[in-house]
Amino acid sequence: MANVRDDQPEPLVVPLSKDGHESLTFDVGGISGWAGYHSPETEERQLLVQLRVGPETDDPDAPIEMRELRVAAQSGAAFNSAFLRTIPVARITAAINRPAIAEQLRPLLAPTNEIQADDFPGSGQWVYALPPRSRATLRPKLKIKDPGTRRRPDDFYRQVAEAYLAQASISDQAARDLAEANAVPVSTAHRWLKEARNRGLLKMPGQGGE
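and the corresponding structure tokens:
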């Protein structure tokens, strides 16, 4: 297995927890959009979890969403519906739409209408399905400097979008976390997020033309 790692490119690791125990490892060996999902749960149950992401539409800047999920269990491993409920789809969606992450992923994504049926998903560079060599931690900077102007500039809402998506990668209450970090009501944080979406700076699947 060490030889496989030596001969193949290291995957792109996307953290889903502060301490790096939960992450995605993306196939960078070609155009596929496949990633491995790793967590203490997958390790304990000895499960290989792979998911494919792709653009929501043909628009080059379209939000990225999950399009396929595969789970393989070793003989005797515990795989059931309860495990499937532990896969954090919402946090994964936030993570892959962080601007810095989405920019790295877009060149690796297959067309939106493609359905894959490979023997082994991905480009064949299957090292991405293995747990990462090192943990990628994530501690989002949630405090945002308010310029104090009546109409805040795009840069403010760009920071709001990045902070929210980063926190939503590791938390199920990202808007509340954002509000608390900036000492504002949750309703204010939601207004910031709405304006970021309206300006096209916060893109997530299912928003339509909003």
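(Above: one complete record from the training split.) The mean pLDDT is 88.
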